[in-house]
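Before going further, learn to read the protein records used in this course. Taken together, the tokens spell out the fold as the letters spell out the chain. A record is reproduced here so that you can trace the correspondence yourselves:

***
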Amino acid sequence: MANLVTKEKISLKNNPEIKEDLIQSFIFNDPKVLGLGDLTPIQRERIQPQGGRLDVLLADDNGTRYEVELQLGATDPSHIIRTIEYWDTERKRYPQYDHCAVIIAEEITSRFMNVISLFNGSIPLIAIQVSAYKVGNDTLLTFTKVMDRI
């Protein structure tokens, strides 16, 4: 007989036990959790020439690299800009690959969707919403793609 359990939605941003670094590691060690196909991890915390660090860099077998920026909480302007800047830097440094910006946040806001629509498809961007649930003593993460490449 199956054992049924309940889950309690929790906030990652306000959780003292779960930090961004832990989620980066989780994604890096098992990129298929993002639902973007069979991806290979390349690097975490990749230092950018203009400053900052790209959270996670992934690649697929078709020559596409995914520049992933993680945001605990709702999308905000600085993370939107950072995601686009990192994507732009990597595509200029490595023009032999296709590149796709990926932003992961607990809440993909309507403001984010409005800003992205202004770019009118010129930036390939994927938005993924991450949700966290407490199940017993464990934390369950789910990743839902809310916007595919434009």
